Amino acid sequence: MPQLRLALAQVNTVVGDIDGNAELCLQAARDASGAGAHLLVLPELALTGYPIEDLALRKSFQTASRAALAALPRQLADAGLGDLAVVVGYLDASPDAPPQTGRPAGLPRNSAALLLGGEVLARYDKHHLPNYGVFDEARYFVPGLDLQVVRLHGVDVAIAVCEDLWQDGGPVAATREAGAGLLVVPNASPYERNKDDGRLELVRRRAAEAGCVLAYVNTVGGQDELVFDGDSLVVAPDGEVLARAPQFDDALLVVDLDLPAATAEPRDEDSSLTAANGGRVRIRRTVASSEPLPAYDPQPASVAERVPDEQEVWSALVVGLRDYVRKNRFRSVILGLSGGIDSAVVAALAVDALGADNVHGVSLPSVYSSEHSKDDAADLAERTGLHYSTVAIAPMVAAYLGEVELTGLAEENLQARVRGTTLMGLSNQHGHLVLATGNKSELAVGYSTLYGDAVGGYAPIKDVPKTWVWAIARWRNADAEARGETPPIPPNSIDKEPSAELRPDQRDTDSLPPYDLLDDLLDDYVEQDRGSAELVALGFDPALVERVIRMVDAAEYKRRQYPPGPKISARNFGRDRRLPITSRWREPAPGASHDTPVPAKTSPAGERGGTA
Ligand SMILES: Nc1ncnc2c1ncn2[C@@H]1O[C@H](COP(=O)(O)OP(=O)(O)OC[C@H]2O[C@@H]([n+]3cccc(C(=O)O)c3)[C@H](O)[C@@H]2O)[C@@H](O)[C@H]1O
Ligand SMILES: Nc1ncnc2c1ncn2[C@@H]1O[C@H](COP(=O)(O)OP(=O)(O)OP(=O)(O)O)[C@@H](O)[C@H]1O
Ligand SMILES: NC(=O)CC[C@H](N)C(=O)O
């Protein structure tokens, strides 16, 4: 059987930095060549970064991407890497769009090219364009219709791109018809909880369908609200995992493969599969080298171990925060420390992401701040080593109230707004990025003050439900203890009852149901998109369902103004869940729906919130 040493590079590209990304690709090629690889595969759109959004439609950006791709084979050859075959993702475009398409520029394509010997040897355009959740690829790209197969050292190597694996038919089925010995797939697949398990099963199923080894390489790093976790994989057609890269880190995964020798006639042919335009998927073949390599001793490949869910989420948040700060050219962050769990977790994440020296925590006590809130904030500062200062807001609030008469909620919110103004002032003065500390449960129900605690440039835990904020805090502390380090989060911040401290003896539960119940209901309403009848059928108290749905729906305007933050769930507030702000639609009151029969309760009334 021919042998091939394959390298998969999970690299952290920067959207729009085509020159920097090309340099990353060259460095990966140097490393792969140093490791003795014959074929290197880089992620989807590695030259441009992912996702490029409306940059895909800009003629200047298309031209720059095509130029960088055209220059890369020569750069590889000049660096003595001409013998290494390199598959790299880039933005392509046919020069001009037909006038009837109404598109401003050429027809953009989400493409991958195989480079070898100083030339672009073959090109492939992604067939399946994801257009759900966070993806809008049908807005940007025209789909490809061909399967590209390149004969390399006597092995037929087919190429597909990301979503091509998630949809039935097309390139994977064509790979089997083509009799390819290896399917390589560049990806840009964003992280969400439990997605790694789903991906592994998907890759196993597609390897079986393609009838050959499948090499899946994913990008890594943060881009606005998305975090890419890497987790690149090589799987045999019988489902065996031959190699697996770690999550959330740059990595070069190298694996030696014994692959079937190519036997097909090296000419283009139609497959039996229907392409997006109704025609046949055409199998295009290119011969690079038919001769197998001389036999060599294979090296064992690494299979990274899985980590606990809490660690996975913590790492995603750290990478999302670090890359947002770094890629937007900030060096430091600032946040208000209330002594509560949310600001403590955000501070600990920031210290892990940027180092304590780049994190500034400010205690901003008001007349309602308890002693423990100040002590717990100081304890957090001592445990983590972040910069800590105090600005008393009471005199500013009093001066304001002396000029403008505000009472009740307006007075409560003023305190949050004086804090927000103070943090933004310090940001302007010192160049720190302000971190907003709201969690997903609060965002869901609108439990934050506009231009108050909702100010900021980035919101690290906006997709983390409150119950998970506690879970990751406990995990982070336990992990520190296991490593003989000081746990960063004060146990008191974890254990105390949550309070906004905007009036005497205030508790979150004055306005909200207990968080375990609230998160349970929000998971069903927001993430699973269940209507009120279904929620009641699941056993939630009808009055609670009505109240929570009203709060969630009414807070859409607040969420739209909230800073971006890393997505860790299957449905974040942002691109995954797009609802009108101005809307008269109300979920039918539980039991009142005329077109949806209300199923019988599966648990006694009151079991899920009847007493809340
Ligand atoms: N559809 C719409 N489109 C655009 N703007 C809209 C709007 N509806 C109201 N508004 C505006 O929004 C204002 C109301 O919003 P806002 O001023 O934020 O105030 P609001 O939502 O009324 O009150 C803030 C709530 O958050 C709680 N809170 C505050 C601070 C921290 C925490 C915490 O523990 O984390 C909790 C606080 O206890 C209170 O329940 C209205 O006065 C109006 O100007
Ligand atoms: N006394 C304070 N000093 C500094 N910042 C504060 C103070 N009180 C509130 N904040 C800021 O406002 C955010 C909202 O705080 P609040 O205590 O009202 O609610 P929370 O959502 O329970 O947050 P936390 O768990 O951090 O207390 C805090 O995370 C913090 O960044
Ligand atoms: N870039 C893509 O095509 C990503 C879509 C794919 N379903 C994923 O999340 O992995």
UniProtKB/TrEMBL annotation:
One of its GO terms (biological process) is NAD+ biosynthetic process. GO terms for molecular function: ATP binding; glutaminase activity; NAD+ synthase (glutamine-hydrolyzing) activity; NAD+ synthase activity. Transmembrane segments: none annotated. It is an enzyme of class 6 (ligase). One of its GO terms (cellular component) is cytoplasm. Deamido-NAD(+) binds at N413, E442, K558. Its EC number is 6.3.5.1. PROSITE patterns: CN_HYDROLASE. The active site is at E44 (proton acceptor), K126 (for glutaminase activity), C162 (nucleophile). The keyword Nucleotide-binding applies. It comes from the Bacteria. Residues 481-514, 561-612 are annotated as: Disordered. HAMAP family: NadE_glutamine_dep. Belongs to the NAD synthetase family. In the C-terminal section; belongs to the NAD synthetase family. This is Glutamine-dependent NAD(+) synthetase.
